Amino acid sequence: MIEKNKATKSPLDSVTLAKLHDALGQNIDIVLEHFINYAPTQIDALSTAVANDDMVFLARKAHQMKGECCQIGALVLANLCQEMEQTMRESKKQQLICLKKIQAEMDKVLLALKDEIQKNDLFFK
Question: Which domains does the chain possess?
Answer without folding.
Answer: 14-123 (1.20.120)
